[in-house]
Design goal:
By secondary structure, the protein is an alpha/beta fold. It has two domains: about 110 residues, Aspartate Aminotransferase, domain 1 (Alpha-Beta Complex); about 220 residues, Aspartate Aminotransferase, domain 2 (3-Layer(aba) Sandwich), CATH 3.40.640.10. The strands form three sheets. Strands 2-8-7-6-5-3-4 form a seven-stranded mixed β-sheet, with helices on both faces. A three-stranded antiparallel β-sheet has the order 9-10-12. Strands 1-11 form a two-stranded parallel ribbon. It binds pyridoxal-5'-phosphate. Pyridoxal-5'-phosphate (PLP) binds next to helix 5.
């Protein structure tokens, strides 16, 4: 089956306009960012990790101070408080919510539960790989379908490939690194049908940035009772990446199974700040406005240079440079800017996160210097 899936991948990649290099599924999963991309203290402009570049508001500072008195307590009771607030906002029940240490812990726990002992996980690449790479360490087999010609998750092909060994289908919407958003009706239909045969995971970490008014979360399918797990985070628009707090939504029995298998859960500061951030509408609108402003500047600069890019529903933009990504990374590094990692097979594309307006201006200046 592995060989068959590899042949299929190679055939599809050959037909794919944007892909400049053909690599195996193994290589698609293998890239690890160099260490210094993760060092926030070296004065570089960090447009590589899709963070919210703005620190949380003064209101949040107060919430931090207010937590001081609770630091000597175990956080157990606070998980329920946050789950209740999330449930109320998302229109699900508290037992449908699993609070996690960043959404990453939810991805890992899911990868472990469904991937261990040779479970097959079906997905498209490139996408966010945490669940896949973690599951692989416990023996999962990752069955890879390339993105379609529009660089979207190929839902019809995923549907076709579901087989008796498929334990989970992973869909990221909007997808990282493309920033593309699936048609909601098509995704809902896919989840309903696929979940009759396997578990479906929809990563909605960038949900808040979606620029299509009224776009629905797949969480309504949780209430319909389907085999579906949704992930969200406080790391992006709420500006709490360093705190590590996120959540999953799933049917109560699925949620309980995952909750029992978390490694650490999160801490009392993260729980209190996540709660406070849900009330801080001013910071959320500020972050969304600044993100739109940053993306507009990036689009304008790419348009000026005639460079191809994908309009994005996230806080980053994926664009085609036509040059090997490692070279492009080094050129931007020389200009004091970290850009995103390689996303095979798109080895001549680059992912740039929206930083503060002045950071984006530095990026567009460097882009024009390097590519004009
Ligand atoms: C699609 C996607 N999912 C999940 C995550 C993990 O985010 P966190 O663990 O901070 O919630 C990221 C991080 O960038 C991401 O891009």
């Amino acid at each position: 089956m592995q060989q068959q899936s590899r042949r299929h991948l190679l055939r599809n990649l050959a037909a794919l306009g944007g892909a400049s290099m053909v690599v195996s599924p193994r290589e698609l999963l293998a890239f690890t960012p160099p260490r210094d991309l993760n060092d926030p203290t070296n004065g570089m402009v960090r447009l590589s990790s899709n963070e919210n570049p703005y620190s949380p508001s003064e209101k949040m500072k107060q919430a931090m101070l207010d937590t001081h008195a609770d630091l000597c307590r175990y956080p157990n009771a606070k998980f329920g408080d946050l789950a209740e607030l999330i449930a109320e906002r998302e229109g699900v029940a508290p037992e449908n919510v699993v609070v996690t240490s960043g959404s990453r812990e939810g991805l890992n726990a899911t990868g472990l539960v469904y991937g261990m002992n040779g479970g097959e996980i079906l997905t498209c690449l490139p996408t966010y790989r945490a669940l896949l790479t973690y599951a692989e360490k416990f023996g999962a087999y990752i069955n890879v379908v390339p993105l379609d010609k529009e660089l979207q998750f190929n839902l019809p092909e995923l549907q076709k490939r579901i087989n008796a060994n498929t334990k989970l289908v992973f869909v990221c919407n909007p997808n990282n690194p493309t920033g593309r958003l699936l048609d909601a009706t098509k995704l809902q239909a896919f989840v309903r049908k696929a979940s009759e045969r396997t578990m479906v995971f929809v990563d909605e970490v960038y949900f808040d940035y979606i620029e299509e008014a009224g776009y629905p979360s797949m969480s309504s399918l949780v209430l319909e009772g389907h085999n579906v797990i949704i992930s969200r985070t406080f790391s992006k628009v709420y500006g709490l990446a360093g705190m590590r707090v996120g959540f999953l939504m799933a049917r109560a029995d699925i949620a309980a199974r995952l909750r029992e298998r978390l490694m650490s859960g999160t801490n009392i500061m993260a729980l209190n700040l996540a709660k406070a951030s849900l009330e801080d509408n001013e910071f959320k609108s500020f972050s969304l406005d600044k993100n739109k402003e940053g993306k507009k500047m990036i689009y304008a600069s790419l348009d000026k240079l005639g460079m191809k890019y994908l309009p994005s529903h996230t806080n980053f933009v994926f664009f085609k440079t036509g040059a090997p990504i490692e070279e492009v990374q080094n050129k931007f590094k020389d200009e004091g800017i970290y850009v995103g990692r390689p996303f095979p097979p798109f080895m001549d594309w680059c992912r740039i996160s929206t930083g503060k307006v002045e950071e984006v201006a530095k990026f567009t200046g460097a882009l024009e210097k390097i590519f004009s």
